[in-house]
Write a structure and sequence with these properties.
Length: 274
């Protein structure tokens, strides 16, 4: 009798399981089909979105970031749709997800500021890879623009990581955005020097340098009359890549020419504050 009772219980349990499985199988099949179709649609949407962004010449960093957002965003929507199809209440899950997102957002306020700054930099492009910039008290060549930080390579081969939040909210000097740059050099001469002769000598040096552009025209003018001497300012335009060498060569050639002409370069004496 005991064995017969156990068999009856097993049969009852099996019948209940089969009934539940038959009743639940349409939802299970629908959920599996929705999952498979959803994964396929997400891949198509992500691929199409990436091609559109590439065609519109969107920044590569932004393409990767937006592609990831689209990919994971659609996956979360698909997951909620699948569990809803299975009959699981999704409203509580969405509430938990929202609360978790709020908690993470509050704990990562600084990172979110850098994230927003990175988005602004990528969208408005105050600089691009390869540009030489100065910002936040540092300067260098931009070697990478990430979502949270921008990497600069200094002339000493040091890598500087600048947070995008501070970078986007501060002043940025971009030395590479324009094709040409102007040199501004100060040269001091004594009061015994003929100003016109000194200016003509510098202009001759500038005219002989093929790297210096003819338009706008290079100029030499009196900047200031000080207690120690006369300050001349030299303005000359050149290609941005020649700026450093041109500035150095102008100073060197002017010194040599002044020595040959007997012109004394007057040092600037700092005035006493007493």
């Amino acid at each position: 009798m005991k064995i017969a009772g156990e068999i009856s219980f097993i049969e009852q349990y099996a019948n209940s399981f089969i009934k539940v499985f038959i009743d639940y199988s349409p939802k299970l099949v629908a959920a599996i089909l929705l999952l498979l179709v959803g994964i396929w649609v997400i891949r198509i949407v992500n691929s199409v979105a990436r091609k559109i962004m590439v065609r519109r010449e969107v920044e590569p960093t932004l393409i990767e970031f937006l592609s990831d957002i689209i990919y994971w965003g659609l996956r979360i929507v698909l997951f909620i749709a699948v569990i809803s199809k299975l009959g699981i209440e999704s409203s509580s899950f969405v509430a938990i997800l929202g609360a978790a997102g709020l908690a993470v957002g509050l704990s990562l306020q600084g990172s979110l500021s850098n994230f927003a700054g990175g988005m602004l930099i990528i969208l408005f492009k105050p600089f691009k890879l390869g540009d030489t910039i100065e910002a936040q008290g540092v300067g260098g060549t931009v070697i990478d623009i990430q979502i949270f930080v921008t990497q600069l390579l200094t002339a000493n081969n040091q890598v500087i990581f600048v947070p995008n939040g501070a970078l986007s909210n501060g002043t940025i000097i971009n030395y590479s955005q324009q094709e040409n740059r102007r040199t501004e050099l100060i040269m001091g001469i004594s009061y015994d020097t003929n100003i016109k002769a000194a200016k003509d000598l510098i202009l001759e040096i500038l005219d002989k340098d093929p790297r210096i552009l003819k338009h706008p025209q290079a100029t030499v003018s009196v900047k200031e009359l000080t207690d120690s001497g006369i300050k001349l300012v030299i303005h000359a335009w050149c290609k941005k890549e020649d700026h450093g060498n041109v500035s150095s060569d102008i100073l060197e050639n002017t010194k040599t020419a002044f020595d040959n002409a007997g012109i004394v370069i007057q040092p600037f004496v700092k005035e006493s504050t007493k």
